[in-house]
Design brief:
Layout (H helix, E strand, L loop, with lengths): L1 E5 L6 E5 L9 E9 L3 H12 L2 H7 L1 H14 L1 H13 L2 E2 L3 E9 L11 E5 L8 E5 L3 E3 L6 H4 L2 H14 L6 E5 L3 H12 L3 E5 L3 H7 L1
Length: about 210
């Protein structure tokens, strides 16, 4: 099967021929119909990967902190080996898709071959076939098109953020950053009676959010 792979050391993207994933306990094998390109998240990953080690460290101070803590516990040499291994390991992109169930592990209940499902998480990447944990797979309701269901993960993220904000009817809300999730948040707030102030450096995205 074909899968989009990123080299985290160079940022290079390739379409690779890789084996179809094997069914593992608690997982579902899905044939992808649609996978969403999250332009903000994925472009950030690619841009970070293209930087040298210093640039990577500056852009991801959270990872630098993790490396320092690991070095304190396990030593500099072992930590260096782990970091080098991580940088050399190809990374698939994508985290929201929809497709058809091809097979399930014996301990997976509630799904069967032929079901149309939406998938999320790091396993829901840009590949012809994916193996996804059961808790990251949900059946698509009748009448919902697979191309729309592919947005389920992004919609869930946007909805959860809106819920946590506790927005009330008539409140004015600033949404900073009108990427895919930001634009979904705008639509959710508008539908629930809020008033949105969209903020982004792109006039085109602001126009879409109005």
């Amino acid at each position: 099967m074909r899968q989009i792979i990123q080299n985290y050391k160079t940022g290079e993207l390739k379409i690779e021929e890789v084996p179809i994933p094997q069914i593992q306990s608690g997982r579902v094998l899905v044939k992808n119909y649609y996978s969403i390109i999250s332009s903000g998240t994925e472009k950030t990953k690619i841009d970070t990967a293209k930087k040298n080690l210093v640039g990577k460290a500056i852009s991801r101070p959270d990872l630098v902190k993790q490396v320092i803590e690991r070095a304190k516990k396990e030593g500099i040499w072992k930590t260096k080996q782990l970091v080098s291994q991580r940088l050399d390991t190809p990374v698939p992109l994508g985290y929201s898709c929809s497709g058809e169930v091809i097979n399930t592990a014996e301990n997976v209940k509630g799904l069967r071959q032929g079901d149309i499902v939406a998938c999320g998480g790091n396993f829901a990447n840009h590949a012809e076939f994916i193996s996804v944990p059961k808790n990251l797979v949900v059946p698509v309701p009748e009448g919902v098109k697979p191309e729309h269901a592919a947005f389920a993960t992004l919609g869930a993220i946007a909805l959860q953020g809106t819920r946590l904000a506790g927005i009330q009817i008539g409140e004015k809300v600033a949404v900073i950053g009108l990427g895919l999730i930001g634009l979904l948040v705008v639509q959710i707030i508008n539908a629930s009676g809020g008033q949105v102030i969209g903020i982004d450096i792109s006039p085109e995205k602001i126009a879409i959010g109005l």
